[in-house]
Amino acid sequence: MIRTYKFLLRPTVRQAVAFGEMLRDHCSLYNGALQERRDAYRHASRTTVRYGRQSAQLKEIRAFDSECHGRWSFSSQQATLRRLDKAFAAFFRRVRAAEKAGYPRFRGIGRFDTVDFPRDGDGCRWDSTPHDPVTRVRFQGVGHVRVHQHRLVTGKVKTVSVKREGKRWYVILTTEQAMPEPLPASGSMVGIDLGVANFLADSDGRFVPNPRHGRKAAAKLEAAQQALSRCRRGSKRCRKAVEEVARLHRKVRCQRLDHAHKTALDLVRNHDFIAHEDLRVRDMVRAPVPKPDPATPGNFVPNGAAFKAGLNRSITDAGWGVFLAILTAKAESAGREVMAVDPRNTSRTCPMCGHVSAENRPTQDKFQCTACGHRAHADTVAALNVLRAGLVRREA
Prior knowledge:
Distance between the termini: 27 Å
Number of strands: 16
Largest sheet: 7 strands, antiparallel
Number of helices: 11
Strand order of the largest sheet: 2-6-7-1-5-4-3
Radius of gyration: 26 Å
Structural class: alpha+beta
Order of helices and strands: EHHHHEEEEEEEEEHHHEHEEHHEEEH
Number of domains: 2
């Protein structure tokens, strides 16, 4: 199986400058390759330039500009060209599928923050000083950089990446390792229902409260954004304001990830089978379509856009998609089974008699069957129905 590790780097001032130059030169290579593809298609009878041709030009580019491009790893530059090639492949795939195309764009140095090394030992070396008590990773053109290794790396290191987040630098490792031993069977099965009022409700009647990290940090974020809007672009004060906004967003993201990891780990440790709704979060947070007013052309009738915007913020703040991805990954490592089921009518179906009706749920948290009179919390009822649907699908 493939596992990824992310560690904080502690470069010296000189090494941090070298990292910045590495990003700048790889960004220049990316933009130059993109410009060559654009020019070839527009002015050379719609000629398509592919990765193989651009990769073959790297040797000449490195010899011509040895100070800029010759000091970095050849394989990392090839990985940057493959990154552009993947962007064009995704663009043509979306064109064929009649989706929004999204032509690859030029990257500013502020929007280019990752350099990939396809193989450990080729331009980089993880744990380059094994006899040193301090873990270090070596990058060509930068040197041996200290790593804050907070956990043990198991398996064979396949790829290494260096990433910038604000003022911090991280190393990301991809390792290949054998499947771990599954956890002992617990004999328990559970269905979960994700929500906004409560982050999670399970079929056993337990609830996980919604931490609402984004809402708690909204006031500080609003003040930081307002301070940024009053700054002159390109000034030193503007750069500090941008860093403050990025710091607040990074803190919220780390809090959300921490909550998702802990909640998923608790579920995986205690249950052998976990069923959840197959939620399409991207479709759920779309803005409502404007409704033209037939009586007065040019005007629109109310469509609940303000209410939907607030709901979209709450869904995004909960981070359902990230949580489900983490839950699936942890369950695979622990030998647990996770099943996604159709979410339709899970909170409107009575678990006792099977009656389905919108009137069964008069309020957000109250469920009362209009046929048999069964009463319960609406989220618990939904989790029960999710578990039953998951078991039916599992048997099928």
